[in-house]
Amino acid sequence: MTGPCNLPDLDRIRYHIGTDGLRLAQQRSSPAAPFPLSARVMSSTPQAIRGTQDIFGSDAEAFAHVVETFERVRKLYRFRRVEMPVFEKTAVFSRSLGETTDVVSKEMYSFEDRGGESLTLRPEFTAGIARAYLTNGWKQFAPLKVATHGPLFRYERPQKGRYRQFHQIDAEVIGAAEPMVDVELLVMADQLLKELGIAEGVTLQLNTLGDAASREAWRAALIEYFRDHKASLSEDSQDRLERNPLRILDSKDPRDKPFTADAPKIDDFLSAEAQDFFGQVTQGLDAASVDYVRAPALVRGLDYYRHTAFEFVTDRLGAQGTVLGGGRYDGLLEALGGPATPAVGWAAGIERLSMLVADAGALEEAPLTVILAVEDDTALPYAQKAITALRHQGIDAEMIATGSPRKRFDKAVKLGAKVLVSFVMRDGVPVANLRAADPTAEYLAVEQVIQSIRP
């Protein structure tokens, strides 16, 4: 818009702002009424959606530290990076997670697109990766080791470390049935937590769900056992009894606790093959010096889970104590219409890991290496050359070139950088003066860069 803006005397004035078609409507009751546009825009500013967060400052640095550490560790283990769509066909999740699970029945963000197809914002990574393995011909790379990270979406009650838009790191191996693969993933997770500096107070809980035959025999025994106590169970557990009795074992409802303690144990139903598989996993962890505790109540409710199930837990995050969890899901790709394919993986919430990083003081912001103070505006082009050259050489730098020239040097001193460079004019020529407490390696590196450029 150019020229003066004369507001017409209309009952309704509409302003069209930006290319996105945002419209602000102002109702006027009389020609003389005031029109405080800025106040009205401010008062109508949309707030953040409940269960989302704006991450800034030290929290954002902790978040980035988790991602950067994960990226470095996954490269050590030769996991390939993948990027997955934020939304998929709803069937990808309903068929893989199960129609009766809370995630599918209560927590998914699903919508119908303009073509009438049901789509869902991804609530987890594994199903989408399994779908991609089948539809993109990734079988040729089996055993496929992949890793990713990014936002996920679930409509659940926000609480400490849990959001409706949250973020996870994820590692999966598809097409490998050997227990040594489970060990590799667990060792990788253990190393990640140690390199983040948060392994202290975090415990690896480990269990086996057996092979398909073992799990089915255990499931039948659980149904028979819990039927005798059905009237005393919580409503959720009564509903799960016939469909998903394993989920009763990890119920947090105090009404279920007296019965879960005496419920049949998976060890009584393990086949020889299942016992051998779990034995090789524990032996591998012992060889890698990864500590763990056996957790017989640790389960996965869906039928496609097999053998190893695990969680890294802590008491430093309140009720939401799991920081990383996973297991073997040999039946998932069949549930999505593919051939029988072994697979195992884990995921961890970045927000929870970030909170542990911050609480442990494992991340301290590095002091500024060099600050440039431009005490004469005529020297600004030289200073601009210098700061560009410093950054190109991997040296972090900031510059003070605004405000009163007399105060810029004092402002620079207060920032406490390792090296201070002031720019002044001497005999009509810009000059750089370096200052530091000692001739450190940083000082010498800055000096070398300054000497390499001309005013």
Helical content stands at: 25-40%
Mean pLDDT: 87
Give the count of helical stretches: 16
Strand content: 15-25%
| Name of the CATH architecture of the largest domain | 2-Layer Sandwich
The gross shape turns out to be elongated
Low-confidence stretches: 1-33
**Might you state the CATH topology name of the largest domain?**
BirA Bifunctional Protein, domain 2
Note the gap between the termini. Answer: 42 Å
Number of domains: 2
Q: In what order do the strands lie side by side in the largest sheet?
A: 3-7-8-13-12-11-9-10
Annotation, overall tally of beta strands: 17
- Please write the CATH class name of the largest domain: Alpha Beta
Give the gist of this structure.
It contains 16 helices and 17 strands. By secondary structure, it is of the alpha+beta class. The protein folds into two domains: about 240 residues, Bira Bifunctional Protein, Domain 2 (BirA Bifunctional Protein, domain 2, 2-Layer Sandwich), CATH 3.30.930; about 80 residues, Rossmann fold, CATH 3.40.50.800.
Question: Can you walk through the features of this model?
Answer:
- The protein is of the alpha+beta class and 455 residues long.
- It has 2 domains: 244 residues, 2-Layer Sandwich (BirA Bifunctional Protein, domain 2), CATH 3.30.930.10; 84 residues, Rossmann fold (3-Layer(aba) Sandwich).
- The protein has 16 helices and 17 strands.
- A hairpin with a 4-residue loop joins strand 1 and strand 2.
- The N terminus is likely disordered.
